[in-house]
Amino acid sequence: MHIRDWPSHERPREKLMQRGPAALSDAELLAIFLGSGVRGLDAVAAARQLLASHGPLRGLLERDARTMATLPGIGPARACKLQAALELCNRFLEAGLQRGDALTDPASAGRYFAQRLRGAPNEVFAALFLDTRHRALGFEELFRGTIDGAEVHPREVVRRALAHNASAVIVGHNHPSGNPEPSQADRHVTQRLKQSLSLVDVRLLDHFVIGDGAPVSMAARGWV
């Protein structure tokens, strides 16, 4: 049965319009971008097969456009659509931090760090610099490491904070393993950063650890 023959409340586009995008499964969201299926499979079934063979969703979408285009049922046009959708998401999150509004929702910073760092194959440590009203001044990837660690130099974080004339800093790094649980080393680095930044009257507001699922806020755990 073609998707157009399904009951209207089960079709991905109609379901999205009636209930919002959060109501759709990964396969249904992917099917909207595919637009149509392949021989013998409708778009949703084709999306399910892609996720089963080349997923999960994160693994599928982290491929570059050339690699993604070689997967069954995608091709260059659909690969470009998916890559463009991811970049739109990046720019939407970035715009929310750069439009001059004060950062009142710390979780939005966590989502931004996740969007920027989650796909990196190695550990990356980054910092978001804020002014006295907690408006974004800049975002920088400061240190890159191996698959299981990156050496962080507090002096360099302080230097970049001063260069931005920042009053506050939020930092974050990814765990390529997917486990977002902060290590003892992560907690130690956080305390060193807090102490170093305080010497120049810059506050460390949070340290996010990015893995699979929601970012882990070390401030929320009382470790900042």
Provide an overview of this structure.
- With 224 residues, the chain is an alpha+beta fold.
- The chain has 9 helices and 5 strands, in the order αααααααββαβαββ.
- The protein has a 5-stranded mixed sheet with strand order 2-1-3-4-5, sandwiched between helices.
- The protein is elongated, with a radius of gyration of 20 Å.
- The termini are far apart.
- The mean pLDDT is 89.
Fraction in helix: 40-55%
Count of strand segments = 5
Which secondary-structure class do the elements indicate?
A: alpha+beta
User: Looking at the structure, what is the overall shape?
Assistant: elongated
Approximately how much beta-strand content do the residues carry? 5-15%
With strands numbered from the N-terminus, the spatial order across the biggest sheet is: 2-1-3-4-5
What distance lies between the first and last C-alpha atoms, to the nearest angstrom?
55 Å
Tally of alpha and pi helices: 9
Summarize, please:
By secondary structure, the chain is an alpha+beta fold.
Q: What is the topology?
A:
Elements: H1 12-19, H2 26-34, H3 43-54, H4 57-61, H5 65-69, H6 75-98, H7 106-117, E1 124-130, E2 136-144, H8 154-163, E3 168-174, H9 184-198, E4 203-210, E5 216-217
Parallel strand pairs: 3-4
Antiparallel strand pairs: 1-2, 1-3, 4-5
List descriptors:
about 220 residues; alpha+beta; 5-stranded mixed sheet; 9 helices; elongated
